[in-house]
Amino acid sequence: MNIKSLLLGSAAALAVVSGAQAADAIVAAEPEPMEYVRVCDAFGTGFFYIPGTETCLKIGGEVRFAYDWNNNNAPRRVNGVDTGINTDDFQTRARVNFTATNDSEVGVISSYIQLEATSDATSFVIDQAYLTVGGFKAGHFNTFADDIGISGENDTFISAAKFDAVNYVYATDAFTVGLGVDELRQADGAFGVQGMASATLGVATLTLWGGYDTKADEGYISGKASAAVGPGTFELYGAWASDRSAYVSTVEWTVGAAYGFQATEKLKITPSVNFVEQFNNVDYTTGGVLASYAIASGLKLDTTVDYNKGDTKDWTGFVRLIRSF
To answer: How many CB atoms lie under 10 A from the CB of residue 2?
Structure first.
């Protein structure tokens, strides 16, 4: 057998093997059409369907860059010069929100998660997480007490409003009522009860709140009236606490007023004033002005200057650049 015969035989064998492999080859399937994300407009703007489900998801968030300052107590000195400022601080805060909502045989079911981190912290935390079924709400969230106060930055009645809680809210166009139970402290089983009621009559809205700490055996009440007046909204509120509780730790009673108005299409200005008396019989008056300027869609600049006319006569303020999406 010569070299030529060997080469021809090898070529023939390769051809047979190749043909057999070709007969058994796996042919890639045609790609299936993709299911593109569909817009869900049943629950408002920004929602889209999670592919393969009837659940609508919305993703949002906020980035806030802030500079805070005050001249509380002794102003800081730099190189022997009184700066007039005791504390100044730059801080960045990030928040990411997830809302998932769908219809069901028991009504609309929704869940909300808010993650938060600041440049002073080392990790994200769950700032709020709760679920709702119709008017019921359960989870870790800002309770009714968080709404107490007026526009501006110098109302100081409520000390804590975020708890693990369950509440129910019934709302119509004319009025809203709500009742909730809060876990105030896990260690000693303390819990609280809060309620609210709100009614709108024409251009005016009246809202009442009340809360009771069962462990401390103390409670609070508060009321606010707001009405459209001229180019803005006028607010008047008052609050009183029987003594220290998980909801109120410092202020015994307070009254305040604010008026927020659109100075221009993009600039809103809100002056406010509050009179406060504490449980230690120290009283003071605070006043300030909050200005909010809409730079562009989703971007605004907030700044405030507040004055505390007490024994220390403190000035405080901040500048915050906020991007929301």
So the answer is: 7
Residue identified by tokens 């600039």 is 267
DSSP for 21-36? HHHHPPPPPPPPPP--
Alpha carbon 111 to its chain's center: 14
Residue 219, C-beta contacts closer than 8 angstroms, at least 6 positions apart: 210, 211, 212, 213, 241, 242, 245
Whole-model pTM? Answer: 0.81
| Burial class for 290, CB neighbours closer than 10 Å (0-12, 13-18, 19+) | buried
Distance from C-alpha of 85 to C-alpha of 93, rounded to nearest angstrom: 23
Look up residue 5 and give its two tokens.
């015969």
Cα–Cα distances in angstroms (integers) from residue 310 to residues 83, 273, 275, 315, in the given order = 21, 13, 10, 11
Q: Classify 201 as helix, strand or coil.
A: strand
Taking the chain (325 residues) in runs of 10, the rounded mean pLDDT of each run is 46 46 53 72 94 95 94 54 62 97 95 96 91 97 96 90 97 96 87 98 97 97 97 97 97 97 97 96 94 98 91 84 97
Residue type, 39: V
| CA proximity to 275, closest of 155, 158, 147, 146 | 155
CA–CA distance, 303 with 160 (Å, rounded to integer): 24
DSSP string, 53-103: SS-EEEEEEEEEEEEEEE--SSPPEETTEE-S-SEEEEEEEEEEEEEEEEE
245 closest CA partner among 210, 277, 274, 275: 210
What is the number of other CB atoms lying within 10 angstroms of the CB of residue 79?
A: 5
Distance from C-alpha of 291 to C-alpha of 204, rounded to nearest angstrom: 24
Residue 264, both tokens: 């221009």
Q: Length of the chain, please?
A: 325
